[in-house]
Design goal:
With 253 residues, the chain is α+β, with helices and mostly antiparallel strands. Helix content is 44%, strand content 13%. It has helices at 3-11, 34-39, 68-84, 117-133, 136-148, 156-163, 169-177, 179-193, 213-230; strands at 57-63, 90-96, 101-105, 108-112, 201-202, 204-207, 251-252. The strands form three sheets. It has a three-stranded mixed beta sheet with strand order 2-1-6. Strands 3-4 form a two-stranded antiparallel ribbon. A two-stranded antiparallel ribbon has the order 5-7. Strand 3 and strand 4 (108-112) form a beta hairpin. The longest helix is centred in the C-terminal third of the chain and has 18 residues, at 213-230. The N and C termini lie far apart (75 Å).
């Protein structure tokens, strides 16, 4: 055995045996580049060649707090997918506003929501919660808790106690009652109205900056499967858990 091969056999047992007869590179070069490692089937044994990072799948959800279809998608698809996949796989943006309308009365924005004033309250609570918490991993479980309960507006304190006890419910309530909550809802209105194409229903799902009927259909049937298909990095273990597609549901404008 050549000196280089003998040394490699001592430092990395089993590495010499993996080369194909067609591998034209000497063993001491197998880990010098990813291309050579792949050609010689030594990639898994080359610790210096970490897997290249891939950009996360960007997903934006435009929704309203009392729409049954929105609640179902957030609780059954989005939250589950977020739990199953590593954080670097997907970035999520939540925009609670949906099919609401705004108008300025006496210099102040007022909102009218599809499912009544209770829904406007739920939208604003979630907008203020996101502003107060800042960190997605802090506020998303709270929103999941609120949307999965019998009331999306009356269980904030209980959900905070379970998922984010460090947050102050009083500060969130003050935001909802004050100018800050109004400003946050106006911003969500602007984001929703700026959608291209304009939204026709909720949940309205934008994936990597695009909305198409096909992406919407795939996301609502099996978001996990869609994200795993789109993610260009090494497929995480959670991708093996892709469930059977679910029927699609929406709340039309």
């Amino acid at each position: 055995m050549a000196p280089a091969l003998a040394l490699l056999a001592l430092l990395a047992p089993g590495l010499v045996a993996v080369a194909l007869p067609a591998c034209d590179y000497p063993a001491h070069l197998w880990c010098s580049s990813r291309e050579i490692a792949v050609a010689c089937q030594a990639e898994s044994r080359c610790a210096n060649l970490s897997h290249p990072t891939a950009p996360p799948v960007e997903l934006s959800l435009y929704y309203e707090s009392l729409c049954p279809a929105c609640r179902g998608f957030l609780v059954e698809q989005l939250f589950t997918t977020w739990l199953l996949l590593p954080s670097e796989t997907m970035n999520i943006t939540l925009v609670p506003y949906g099919n609401a309308q705004e108008k300025k009365v006496g210099g102040k924005w007022q909102f009218q929501c599809q499912h009544g004033s209770e829904e406007c309250l739920g939208n604003m609570i979630q907008a203020c919660l996101m502003h107060e918490a800042e960190n997605f991993t802090t506020y998303f479980p709270v929103i999941f808790c609120m949307e999965s309960g019998t009331s999306a507006t009356k269980n904030l304190e209980a959900c905070l106690q379970v998922y984010a006890p460090q947050l102050d419910a009083g500060r969130i309530a003050a935001c909802v009652r004050g100018d800050l909550g109004t400003a946050l809802m106006h911003r969500n209105a602007q984001l929703t109205e700026a959608l291209d194409p304009p939204h026709q229903y909720v949940p309205w799902i934008v994936v990597n900056g695009k909305h198409t009927d096909e992406l919407q259909e795939q996301a609502q049937r099996s978001l996990l499967r869609l994200v795993c298909q789109l993610y260009q990095g090494e497929k995480p273990e959670g991708c093996q858990s892709a469930a059977a597609p679910k029927p699609r549901a929406v709340c039309k404008r």
